[in-house]
Fold:
Amino acid sequence: MSTPTPRVISIIMGGGRGTRLYPLTKDRCKPAVPLAGNYRLVDIPISNCLNAGFNQIYVLSQFNTASLHKHIQQTYKFDPFGRGFVDILAAEQTGDKETWYQGTADAVRQNMHHYGLKDHDLVLILSGDQLYRMDFRPMLEQHLRTGSDITIAAKPMPSDQVSALGVMRVDTDLRISEFVEKPKDPALVRGLALQGEARSRLADTSDRSYCLASMGIYLVSGKRLREALSDPLQTDFGKEVIPGMVNSHRVTAFVYDGYWEDIGTVGSFWECNLTLTDPVPPFDFFDGANPVYTHARYLPPAKINGARAHRVILADGCIVDDADLERCVIGIRSVIHSGSRLENTVMMGADIYERPDDFVRNREKNRPDIGVGPGCHIRQAIIDKNARIGANCRLSPAGLAEKTETDAWYVRDAILVVKKNAIIAPGTVVGE
Structure:
């Protein structure tokens, strides 16, 4: 008789303050940031779990959680017979502790009493701000087959791109013999580079140096997780817990060589969205066998009135008049008026439609309607939700210093970010 598959619970890390994604995280946590017109970042790890059959999911968060709560409550509903759930565990102060999460390991530790873990249960720990599609079942099978104490998903990455990641050295049986978090010393990185047969397995046949980098995805039993988190001074998996376990436990790598992008900065967020407009994008939202789930909003189809578009994603409920769109992601309920041109722009859309009474009130308050007014030219930009951009505006980051900021916009990673609910008066010129 075969051994039954252990119960798997998934824990998605909501991240810290998300300072590198500011101002997109000014009013929301990282997992709640809109993605690809229709989705939120948190939909990616949740969908990967559900597609693998792992339907008991906790999302840990502590900063600006209201929009995340609302999205998850509206989206992920399960029938009572499947025993599935997606629960948010926000940081809380109790009689036993008065501190917020001090790191990834501390966040998991502080919520141990919620999981109901048994020793033989398995815990899949994930990040909430990555774009990838991964079937976790082969990772589970390898973990059980090799008798590992902890399995870490690892991706081959060019050596010059691993300074912000955990880097590992593996033996021929995929056991990790060394783990270094965010190595900055070039000599150390060179020493961790893939060699021989391991390097020859990669699709890239050039002389470029590669390392195995941690994806921040861990699979561990309930028993080993309790042991690993027994020391309250160890607050972070990558910096403390994993390096400590390498020397005393069987820690193995599960090698994943598909598309994976850590969306930790404004620049990476902007680029990840725009690559989705490629004829064959690196991440495929059209994979019917492995869908990405999100909130069903029951919006009308997008409506285009004479617009010209090249490499554009247009979400549900958009209204685009006689405008020019070049390499853009246009989010739900976006309104773009005639004569406007958007280039290399991510527009997140709006939470509501404005009606004729709203237009009258806008005129009385001398403010533009939600959306992009007529005659605007916007490039190299992210337009956050509910922004009001008046007629004949010229917006770009060209010529502006990094981290230049006003009440309405911010420059980060050479991208102009129009803030959520911003009001930009007609005729405004920003950038060259």
